[in-house]
Design a protein that fits this description.
- The structure is a single chain.
- The protein has 16 helices and 18 strands.
- The protein has 520 residues and is of the alpha+beta class.
- Strand 12 and strand 13 form a beta hairpin.
- Helix 2 runs parallel beside helix 7, helix 2 crosses helix 10 and helix 15 packs antiparallel against helix 16.
């Protein structure tokens, strides 16, 4: 996955691409994988880095959506549960089963949630995970000893999926290349090209050089999430706004707050959302919120009220009450919810995905969630085939193994997310022992991972490495800031950059990382 190689193709290939996919998050990467798997000449462009936005800021769950079951949206739950099963099969190095426990503090909650989870099991069918079951008070505390014991009557255990979101995004980008397509980061679309009033391509700007490139494509797919309206208005300045962004924030705590391997699911909070406390990379992710926001930005920050909400509600269920000083990092993401009718709150907006085709032939796909990315992509490519007049080709992604696929157990915990690529990183560390050293005492990552990120995963900045190739920024914002100079040094050697570049990329990362530092 070499950026220079893609640039060469953009500059020198004159015939139109079959697909131009705008957006390097879950949806766009899924579309590019599907189109490439069908044999179409595919180019994906991303304005910043792959999964820079919403797709690296999730609650790290692959799930059907217990909340949607409660709302009666059975079709969405059915689709998501099926896709959850396929993700476990197609990327076992990144997606795995996780036990969730609903703590029961009122007599009626046991039967209520017990029955609900049995329905959840039944809907999953043959792609279901372990069956749900009721737990006694003693069994519940054995599983989660840090639960608040006062008034605890028992629990309900069920299983869902967990994953590393930005690592899956990187692997999807690599899968595009494996299938003959290409993808490139730091390449925003600045203008759509039209011929006879129909979309025929786009003008791209390389943010590293400032150079602009005109490329032509038979089908152009807008998969830019919360930025969908901005691209739609490039096509039609009068296009009505369809995105209503909802912010979801999270707090990352030390593992001590949730020892063991089980997660907590709180089915009801004051704002109506489900709250999760999830073990992840030997830490605990707690969230999320659902707050309507008017301003759509590339780097959203958790609001004070969100952090307070998360910590206050988590404290109700944990014997050790978390405070702001315990938080290692905080982060926020924006959901691209689609406006439906006169819905007043984000909780009432559609979580399903939406496909729109403009009069000029711009196909926009938005909404949905990580769990259903593959089905969203299939629907989008099916529609694009019809729109562009392609001869229909069968979707082959249902059982397509994602780059890195392996069922072998990787000995080093921090390298397991690389799957089949882990031995290559181990080789780098063996060839240069200094690269086997940790980047920081409080982080699990080693220098060889930085080298690999540059050589094989198109990392271009310190932020790319510390935020998305590794998850250092989420696991410890302060430690990541301290590790940044070493990362810049290793990257500069690979990218042949000078000292000024190192200072600049570290400075840019520190500016971003300030937003992840927990407030005092």
């Amino acid at each position: 996955m070499k950026r220079d190689t893609v640039l060469d193709q953009i500059q020198n290939i004159r015939e139109p691409w079959d697909f131009l996919v705008i957006g390097g998050g879950a949806t766009g990467l899924g579309v590019a994988v599907d189109a490439s798997a069908r044999g179409y000449r595919t180019l994906l462009v991303e304005q910043h880095d792959f999964a820079k936005g919403t797709s690296s800021r999730s609650t790290k769950l692959v799930h059907g959506g217990v909340r949607y079951l409660k709302q009666g949206n059975i079709s969405l739950v059915l689709e998501a549960l099926r896709e959850r099963g396929l993700m476990c099969e197609n990327a076992p190095h990144l997606v795995h089963h996780l036990e969730f426990i609903v703590p029961i503090y009122s007599w009626w909650e046991g039967p209520f949630y017990g029955i609900g989870m049995k329905i959840y099991d039944r809907l999953a069918g043959k792609l279901g995970l372990n069956p749900s079951q009721g737990l006694s008070r003693e069994e519940t505390l054995k599983q989660i000893p840090t639960l608040e014991p006062a008034g605890l009557q028992g629990g309900v255990s069920y299983y869902d999926g967990q994953f590393d979101d930005s690592r899956l995004a990187v692997n999807l980008a690599q899968t595009v290349f494996d299938l003959g397509g290409v993808a490139i980061n730091y390449m925003p679309v600045v203008e759509l090209i039209k011929e006879d009033d129909l979309i025929a391509g786009a003008v791209l700007r390389d943010l590293e050089t400032g150079a602009e490139h005109r490329i032509r494509a038979r089908a152009v797919v807008n998969a830019t999430g919360v930025f969908s309206d901005a691209v739609r208005k490039m096509d039609d300045p009068e296009a009505k706004t369809i995105i209503a962004a909802s912010q979801g924030s999270h707090v990352v705590l030390p593992k001590a707050f949730l020892p063991g391997n089980s997660a907590i699911m709180v089915p009801h909070t004051p704002d109506g959302r489900v709250l999760f406390a999830v073990p992840w990379h030997d830490h605990v992710v707690v969230g999320t919120t659902d707050l309507s926001v008017d301003q759509i930005v590339l780097e959203p920050a958790p609001m004070e009220e969100e952090i307070g909400f998360i910590l206050t509600n988590a404290a109700k269920y944990l014997s050790k009450r978390p405070s702001r000083s315990d938080a290692l990092s905080v982060y926020a993401g924006l959901r691209p919810l689609v406006k439906v009718g006169d819905a007043k709150s984000t909780a009432a907006l559609s979580r399903d995905h939406t496909i729109m085709i403009s009069n000029a032939g711009l196909l926009t796909i938005t909404g949905g969630k990580w769990t259903t990315y593959r089905k969203m992509a299939q629907d989008a490519v099916d529609q694009a085939e019809t729109m562009a007049g392609f001869e229909e080709r069968r979707c082959t992604t249902e059982h397509l193994q994602i780059h890195g696929w392996t069922k072998q157990v990787i000995a080093e915990p921090s390298l397991r997310v690389y799957g089949a690529d882990a031995p290559a990183i181990q080789d780098i560390a063996r060839q240069e022992p200094a690269l086997a050293e940790k980047l920081h005492p409080d982080l699990p990552y080693i220098g060889a991972e930085v080298v690999w990120a540059v050589r094989a995963e198109m990392a271009r900045t310190v932020e790319d490495v510390l935020s998305r190739r590794t998850r250092a920024l989420l696991l410890g914002a302060r430690a990541s800031i301290e590790a940044a100079p070493r990362v810049a040094e290793l990257m500069a050697r690979e990218l042949k950059r000078d000292g000024d570049w190192q200072k600049q990329t570290v400075q840019e990362f520190r500016k971003v990382a300030q937003g992840y530092l927990p407030p005092a």
